[in-house]
């Protein structure tokens, strides 16, 4: 199997954005 950096980077980038938004939301609420 070939590991394409583009295929790996996109899902991780989306996950980072979701986690960052979740942390920011928690900080704002608290």
Quick description:
The chain is mostly helical and 30 residues long. The chain has one helix at 5-29.
Q: Could you explain the architecture of this structure?
A:
It is a single chain. The protein is 83% helix and 0% strand. The chain is mainly alpha-helical and 30 residues long. The longest helix has 25 residues. The termini are far apart. The mean pLDDT is 77. Keywords: Membrane, Transmembrane, Transmembrane helix.
Radius of gyration: 13 Å
Give a quick account of the main beta sheet: strands, pairing sense, barrel closure: none
Summarize model confidence as the mean pLDDT. 77
Order of helices and strands: H
Which structural class do you get from the secondary structure elements?
mainly alpha
Distance between the termini: 45 Å
Helix content: over 70%
DSSP strand count: 0
**Shape summary:** rod-shaped
Number of helices: 1
Structure characteristics:
30 residues, single chain, transmembrane helix, membrane, mainly alpha, rod-shaped
Question: What topology emerges from the helices and strands here?
Answer:
Elements: H1 5-29
Transmembrane segments: 12-29
Keywords: Membrane, Transmembrane, Transmembrane helix
